[in-house]
């Protein structure tokens, strides 16, 4: 089916495929949130030295990046549905391995080949392919709003999964179930949710696939790109810069800064970041309304700039109350660029390149984000340098804002959506 069909869908209706993709997103993020909260503790409990547990997490993320890059760049050619089912099987494989054995090399192999999220974030090829499939069934003027709800659904599911896993372990331990067995129930749940995802993916229709390639259209290269190669490379370079800045001020690192600077205890930190994440989720929903008025690119940049300025103000505040206020204000607009960035990427590449474009840009963002914490760890080791992660991270993000606005303000979208 061509792109025209989905574009004519009723604005008040959601296709069954969109509902199915939201269900798989919720199932997956619930599973990721549940596993991330107990993974390290579980590995240590079964006798894994902490160094080797950390090595497993690092190699798991590296494996996820490798799998994601290959799968997403082939999905539009081989089939999005097939690749989603195959990815679900890799997630199921990892869950079964962690549930059945404590042998380290087996777990390491399963973490690298399978799909495991140590951070609770949406890793692997699911998100890029699902967003491409959603875009195939959503009119351009509704896409930002749909992606905002997709983002919010995942955030709520992750938080709920983490809460459920903690309560499940405590419940089982209160029933005198052994500690290791209590933790092992979470990988079992992880595998079961992966199996449920596969079943839902089986019902996806052909409307989620990339449109057929025109006879005069160039053949896609090894990375799944043809006409949009230059745009994707430029976006990838800019997104890497933004992710590098973001990696310097990850949530866990900001929490450590508040603990070091103002001696904030973990309970209060939990309350602070619960409020931050709620505001962030709301901000993602507001992005769709703003984008309709001023355009996707303008929304990305003009909400991101004040967000980064507020971030840079956090370490300059004289007390914890003003620092928290700056942080809350920052999070109240910090996620407006996420659904707009995703919708913009879908708008400026050809429909049969969306999975590849989304996959490549997500992979480079992951790589960029992984570099930042290395520097922040060094900065936090010296009290005189505690402010640098905020200042450098915010500065890099401001440079990104300027570069992406200058580079793409005259770029015309492939379809009729305001750039």
Strand fraction equals under 5%
Net shape: globular
Number of separate structural domains: 2
Just give the CATH class of the largest domain.
Answer: Mainly Alpha
Structural class: mainly alpha
- By CATH, the architecture of the largest domain is named Up-down Bundle
Report the end-to-end length measured between terminal Cα atoms: 25 Å
CATH topology of the largest domain: the name is Growth Hormone, Chain: A
Low-confidence stretches: 1-12
Name of the CATH homologous superfamily of the largest domain = MFS general substrate transporter like domains
| Major sheet | none
* Mean pLDDT over the full residue set: 84
Number of helices: 16
Order of helices and strands: HHHHHHHHHHHHHHHH
- The Rg value, from CA coordinates, equals 21 Å
**Helical percent range?**
over 70%
Query: Could you tell me the number of beta strands?
Result: 0
What does this protein look like?
- This protein is mainly alpha-helical and 419 residues long.
- The two termini are 25 Å apart.
- It folds into 2 domains: 14-208, Growth Hormone, Chain: A; 229-408, Growth Hormone, Chain: A (Up-down Bundle).
- The model is unreliable at 1-12 (pLDDT under 50).
- It is globular, with a radius of gyration of 21 Å.
- The protein contains 16 helices and no strands.
Give keywords.
single chain; 419 residues; mainly alpha; Growth Hormone, Chain: A; 16 helices; globular; disordered N terminus
Protein topology:
Elements: H1 4-7, H2 16-45, H3 50-78, H4 80-100, H5 104-113, H6 126-136, H7 140-174, H8 179-201, H9 229-248, H10 251-262, H11 266-294, H12 296-313, H13 320-334, H14 337-348, H15 354-380, H16 388-408
